[in-house]
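Quick one: structure for this chain?
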Amino acid sequence: MLYVNPLTSSHAMGSANLPDDVAKEQMALRELEQFFVYTLLQEMRKAMPETGLVEDKTARRMYTEMLDDAMSHEIAQSGKFGLAQQLAEQLHADRVRSVSSPSAARESD
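Got it. Here's what it folds into:
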């Protein structure tokens, strides 16, 4: 699977005029969502019977990995899966809660 480190990626630096930290966070969340969807597709594929489309097992594995990577990338970029958005909302809610009441944040841990 292709991986871009969001902390060093040049794509994160110039993303839609957002501050660097916000752009890096969004990129990291999209990468996490892509990895989750990729893993989900790989696990779902294990339950499917093998077809005779590609006889060579190495070629079939490479083809399915590339296909799953491309699909997971498109799903994550569309934002329709919603995992990155849900995680961002929870992160920001935790930050607001810890800023507004630092003692309550410590008690919940």
